[in-house]
Amino acid sequence: MDNLSSEVSTVLTMEGLAIPPEGVYPAFILGMLSYCIILFCNLVIILTIALDNRLHEPMYLLLINLPINDLMGATAILPQLMKQILMDSRSISYLACVTQAFFFHMYAGGSAQILIAMAYDRYVAICNPLRYSAIMTNVYLLKIITLVWVVQFTLILILVALLLRFPLCRSFVSNVYCDNPSLVRLVCADTTLNNIYGLFTIVSVQVVFVSAVFYTYLQILLTCLKNKQSDAKSKAIQTCVSHLMVFIILELTGLMTLLSYRFEKASPQLRKIVGMFAIIFPPTMNPIIYGLKMKEIRSKIPMFFRRKVSAF
Asked: For residue 201, which of 124, 242, 254, 131 has the smallest C-alpha distance?
């Protein structure tokens, strides 16, 4: 307990971004603009679904978890990074660093689990349409959403608990934000268990994620090909295209991030860029994809803004 108390008060130094003095304000403005776009786009999706009773269906109630998760990830990283850039202060407390890492990994793993739940919902809706309302009841939907968040919370809590066992012997975080790999490097003890658990979590989540998405969308594709109703087929394919685009973006950014850590010879600057890409790109693109590709949401967003304008 004494060791943990002393670690909490430790001040760490972030590596930060190599920005020349003349580039500080442009970098800050660009970062703040990115964060504002993420906030705006994701809040529009959340509020559009939350305030329109016609969108209170399983598909949209599952979808609303994705922008919530994206906001959590972006908010955990970008405000702290903007502070570093503007104030040229790379100091962060160990407690704040661990908290940032916790929410970053919640965001990273949560995206995969939410997309699994959404793929399952589309599988039931398209492959078993007559049983959909009987299967996807409010109680069952609540269980799915609760399971997604509880499983992810538990996995990351164990990851952090394994890290907190050790005292620190270093104080320099070789990244622009805190995550488990960069925090493990601050420990001089044997972290084999941490590495095994981290690798097991990544592999198991990825195997389940890719397998579930591949199976469900293969079944959906086969069902669509057999469906003779062109309207139903078009709607199903349109919905699935949105999900698959988000899935591909998540997989590509996740793979790039993992590879940047696994190759020790990778440029530190490249690792930073890849890390920032994983934080900014998915939360920006996901709401845009769903806002443009899903007709029901696309048609409700203008109504949402008209309602807000008339309220003033």
From this structure: 254
